[in-house]
Amino acid sequence: MKFSVERDVLAEAVSWTARSLSQRPPSPVLSGILITAGNGIVALAGFDYEISARIEIPADTTEEGSVLVSGKLLAEISRSLPQARVTIETEGTKVTVSCGRSRFHLATMPVGDYPELPVLPELAGVVDGEAFAQAVSQVIVAASKDDTLPILTGVKMEIEDDLITFLATDRYRLAMREVSWKPTVPGLSTSALVKARTLNEVAKTLGGSGELRIALGEDSDLIGFESGNRRTTSLLVDGDYPKIRSLFPESTPIHATVNTSELVEAVRRVAVVAERNTPVRLAFTDGQLALDAGTGEDAQAEEALETHLDGEEITVAFNPAYLSEGLNAFDSEFVRFSFTSAPKPAMMTAQKTIDGEDEVDYRYLVMPVRLPTGA
Predict the structure, then answer these.
(1) How far apart are CA 96 and CA 22, in angstroms?
(2) CB atoms inside a 10 Å sphere around CB 95
(3) Banded model confidence at residue 204, pLDDT cuts 50, 70, 90
(4) 358 in any annotated domain
(5) Which range marks the domain in which residue 324 is found?
(6) Using CA atoms, how far apart are residues 132 and 137, in angstroms rounded to an integer?
(7) What is the pLDDT of residue 225?
(8) Same structural domain for residues 153 and 261?
(9) Inside any domain, residue 96
(10) Which residue, 246, 263, 279, sits at the end of a domain?
(11) Backbone CA torsion sign across 203, 206, 211, 215
């Protein structure tokens, strides 16, 4: 095998493929990147039995063939190469990487021992990549990071005809985002539970390439994503996801609207004095939101913001991290808090103007911290 390619093209392709490799591969060959050259195309692939990644790049192929080399090492080499054209060729049991005056010799692994990459399931539909990426970034903040509860580390994708609903929860907050898409078969009704970190990687690396094709077979335990010259597959998370849709309140008598960026900064400042597991308190009154944190002889902080309140006055307290992460998921000028009562979860939605209608395509529900009686 022998081919040459532009340094930046190679470095980006290797780096993207290497992200799919396991940190602790169950077999040494799974730490490798499989490189296949032929007909002016070089394909790079990685697979760890759970996630696969494959990318094709144009190259001048002198000799066809396949080779398996350490993905981590090749990624480090590719990033360190000088700005010149790169030639990769096999020489016996080694691969030589030449770029300018630099030459690297890498040991190879047996290609025959490498598992066959999973076949992409049938195409389910197409979604705008940027809309997909934004939706994923908004819901994964609520996904659990506790691997002892693997179901909650996933994001539920519910598909009903031309609408995808993303759902995530870690039991303390919930997030739901709806996105329109174009299903291959009208009236499609299905669902998939995908690891949040997998969806996040897909959103970051494939979301900006225009249309994103989603492959999801009815009887398959795989989901696939494809955009341009890249494709990735992932095993679905096995298990029954909790029915969290019903937790979003149907009606709320109390609504308060605040400028999003001002509240983000105010929470950040006030939370400086909030020790571990200490909440930030928000008191909504007519025209004003008062924030405070810290109690007794400890450090304390207060700040006041303008708010538009519809309903009775209410005082609530939240974990500052959960509140901040939820607020940072909004790109609207204003955020609307909807309450049923102080002890019940608060729902946050986007709002364009301080006294306008809220937009419910994204909803973030956060559990309050109980305040002592009389607080």
Answers:
(1) 25
(2) 21
(3) very high
(4) yes
(5) 248-366
(6) 9
(7) 97
(8) no
(9) yes
(10) 246
(11) negative
What are the tokens at 15?
């780096």
Among 179, 214, 246, give the residue marking a domain's end.
Answer: 246
C-alpha triplet 166, 355, 271: angle, nearest 5°: 65
Count of the separate structural domains present in the chain? 3
The β-bridge relationship of strands 346-351 and 280-285 is unpaired
Does the structure show a pLDDT above 70 at 316? yes
Q: How many CB atoms lie within 10 A of CB 85?
A: 15
| Residues contacting residue 297 through CB under 8 Å, at least 6 positions apart | none
pLDDT in tens, 164-191: 999 999 999 999 999 999 999 999 999 9
**Separation between Cα atoms, residue 168 and residue 185, nearest integer Å:** 26
User: Which token pair is 222?
Assistant: 């795989």
Q: State whether 238 and 153 are in the same domain.
A: yes
Q: What are the pLDDT digits (tens) for 205-227?
A: 998 878 999 999 877 899 999 99
- Kindly report, residue by residue over 223-257, the tens digit of the pLDDT: 999 999 999 999 999 999 999 999 999 899 999 99
Q: Do 129 and 105 share a domain, yes or no?
A: no
Q: Which tokens go with 365?
A: 């529900």
pTM over 0.85: yes
